[in-house]
């Protein structure tokens, strides 16, 4: 039986934790994001019955902004001093998870690359022929659909839905490896990437399948704006050029380390909620 490997989109999981348990604190420090994230580790390892986990983080401003200046420019910036302080606190919790808490717990597969995104690292691990495992991506980011393959699935904790290569093909009618082309044509509103004007996702799928009539307005628009598509391909195809491939290491997580870290953070309920890695 092949081992299972969880590939965590950590920034997504941190934002998810912020909205569910972000108000928790210990002493004078907010700890809710860290609490929710650590709780998710245990929950996910139990759900998929594997201790093998890769933690993938965004780091710094994305290099994609050098190609498209408005890339992710639609993300709401904090306006008030209170919002700025909350953003800073959240970022500090994410940084401590990456550089302090996860290493202290004994997790060794913690990956980030300056100016690159968690998606890029996840895709690089998926593409690696050196890492033999059934890989389970944990994220809600549809860009990662392109990584689905016979031994790669994707779990969305929000919807509790597990997508496989076959279920994606049945739902969308295109193979996952062509999904980047759909996004390049239709654009990506969440990342503020404009596509071909007047062409949405469903129409882009028809074009990729070869089902879009050549005399249609949409077909002509797509054929006339190949430069936009080529630019967008560079933005949406994973992993982004220059992403470094990683090597997996054996974790050194123990029950003692888990109890010590959660006790230090005042997370009494987590002391008993051990992940498989620590059992």
In short:
The protein is an alpha/beta fold.
Question: If you had to describe this structure to a student in words, what would you say it looks like?
Answer:
With 279 residues, the protein is α/β, with parallel strands linked by helices. The protein folds into two domains: 4-172 and 240-278, 3-Layer(aba) Sandwich (Rossmann fold), CATH 3.40.50.1010; 176-236, 5' to 3' exonuclease, C-terminal subdomain (DNA polymerase, domain 1). The chain has helices spanning 10-21, 32-48, 81-105, 118-127, 165-172, 179-186, 201-209, 217-224, 226-236, 255-264, 268-271, and strands at 4-9, 25-26, 29-30, 53-56, 110-111, 134-138, 152-156, 161-163, 187-188, 193-194. The protein has a six-stranded mixed sheet with strand order 5-4-1-6-7-8, with helices on both faces. Helix 1 packs across helix 2, helix 6 crosses helix 7 (201-209) and helix 6 (179-186) packs across helix 9 (226-236). The chain is globular, with a radius of gyration of 20 Å.
Keywords:
Rossmann fold, 6-stranded mixed sheet, two-stranded antiparallel ribbon, DNA polymerase, domain 1, 279 residues, 44% helix, alpha/beta, 2 domains
List the helices and strands and how they pair.
Elements: E1 4-9, H1 10-21, E2 25-26, E3 29-30, H2 32-48, E4 53-56, H3 81-105, E5 110-111, H4 118-127, E6 134-138, E7 152-156, E8 161-163, H5 165-172, H6 179-186, E9 187-188, E10 193-194, H7 201-209, H8 217-224, H9 226-236, H10 255-264, H11 268-271
Helix pairs in contact: 1-2, 6-7, 6-9
């Amino acid at each position: 039986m092949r081992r299972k490997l969880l590939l965590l989109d950590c920034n997504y999981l941190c934002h998810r934790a912020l909205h569910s348990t972000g108000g928790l604190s210990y002493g004078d420090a907010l700890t809710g994001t860290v609490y929710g994230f650590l709780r998710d580790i245990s929950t996910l390892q139990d759900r998929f019955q594997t201790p093998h986990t890769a933690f993938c983080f965004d780091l710094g401003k994305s290099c994609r902004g050098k190609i498209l200046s408005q890339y992710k420019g639609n993300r709401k910036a904090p306006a008030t001093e209170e919002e700025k302080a909350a953003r800073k606190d959240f970022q500090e919790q994410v940084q401590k998870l990456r550089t302090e808490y996860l290493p202290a717990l004994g997790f060794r597969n913690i990956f980030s690359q300056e100016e690159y995104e968690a998606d890029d690292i996840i895709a690089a691990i998926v593409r690696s022929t050196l890492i033999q495992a059934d890989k389970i991506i944990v994220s809600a980011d549809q860009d990662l659909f392109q990584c689905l393959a016979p031994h790669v699935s994707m779990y969305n904790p929000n919807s509790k839905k597990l997508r496989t290569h076959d279920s994606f093909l049945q739902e969308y009618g295109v193979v996952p490896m062509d999904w980047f082309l759909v996004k390049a044509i239709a654009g990506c509103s969440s990342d503020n990437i404009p596509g071909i004007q007047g062409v949405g996702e469903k129409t882009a799928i028809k074009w990729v399948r070869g089902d879009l009539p050549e005399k249609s307005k949409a077909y002509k628009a797509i054929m006339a704006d190949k430069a936009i598509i080529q630019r967008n391909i560079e933005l949406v195809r994973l992993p982004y050029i220059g992403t470094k491939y990683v090597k997996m290491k054996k974790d050194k997580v123990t029950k003692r380390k888990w109890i010590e870290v959660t006790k230090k953070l005042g997370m009494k309920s987590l002391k008993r909620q051990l992940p498989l890695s620590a059992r």
